[in-house]
Design goal:
By secondary structure, the chain is of the alpha/beta class. It has ten helices and ten strands. The chain has a six-stranded mixed sheet, with helices on both faces.
Length: about 260
């Protein structure tokens, strides 16, 4: 199937997720432009990870519609997933495999020829400065596991990459390597959708930001639009602490008790 022409890499309309009497995501409508580095921010429990899980097929929405890369997420599910990479917050790697074995397995699952997978594995390990590809993943540090997870998400050369807290619990050197890799990807036109609590990294990397609170999108715009007069941190705190947001949070809490 040929890749369709599209303006937005991610489009959602009325995206909603309910858990019994808790509405985790509430009628979320997003438009993420093609080639954008999009930061998706919010306080703990705001609905960020739930949104990513719906966008990547790990959770079924209660309501709403998703289009990725110009394709319907339901009717074109296989084609969409062949063009998307994901690094979840919980890595869930096959730790009895070596780094090399794991990437070859993932690449073959995407239907890539063995010689292509082996070439991309070598390229990714060089790119991410991962020099223990023949060591079992169980013996890797947390930062090395993050690199392996990112390599697995990139092995099939995706057009859209989802990253859920990729900088959580890693050292400064690993963080810099991952940041540089992501910058190269956006230079190539890859769309990246990132959630992170580290606002300084979001401020350096992202070109557009959406802020979610109590399941609702409460602010969205370019980095310049959101932090024109101050830092992203100040804009974020102002957005999630405003009177309307506080009222929404109180209503959400009352409904969930």
């Amino acid at each position: 199937m040929a890749t369709p022409d599209f303006e937005f890499a991610i489009e959602t309309d009325g995206l909603t997720k309910d858990y019994r009497n808790l509405r985790a995501v509430n009628a979320l409508s997003l438009r993420v432009p093609r080639g954008c580095f999009y930061g998706f921010l919010g306080p703990n429990g705001a609905g960020k990870s739930t949104t990513i899980k719906m966008l990547t097929g790990l959770l079924a929405p209660s309501a709403g519609r998703i289009r990725l890369l110009g394709m319907d997420f339901i009717s074109d599910a296989l084609e969409v997933k062949q063009r998307v990479g994901v690094v979840p917050e919980e890595l869930c790697l096959f730790e009895n495999l070596t780094g090399r074995e794991y990437l070859i397995f993932i690449g073959r699952m995407y239907g890539l020829d063995l010689d292509v997978v082996e070439g991309r594995t070598e390229e990714l390990f060089r790119l991410l400065n991962l020099d223990a590809e023949d060591t079992r993943i169980a013996e890797f540090s947390h930062g090395m596991k993050k690199k392996v997870a990112l390599s697995a998400a990139l092995i099939h050369d995706p057009q859209l990459l989802f990253l859920d807290e990729p900088f959580e619990g890693i050292d400064a050197i690993t963080s810099r390597v991952i940041r540089d890799t992501l910058a190269r990807l956006t230079d190539r036109g890859v769309t990246i959708f990132l959630t992170s609590h580290i606002l300084e990294i979001v401020e350096k990397l992202c070109t557009r930001v959406g802020i979610i609170s109590a399941g609702k999108l409460i602010a969205e715009g370019s980095m310049d639009e959101l932090s024109a007069d101050d830092s992203l941190e100040t804009a974020f705190i102002a957005a999630v602490s405003g009177p309307e947001t506080q009222a929404s949070q109180l209503s959400w809490l009352a409904d969930s008790i």
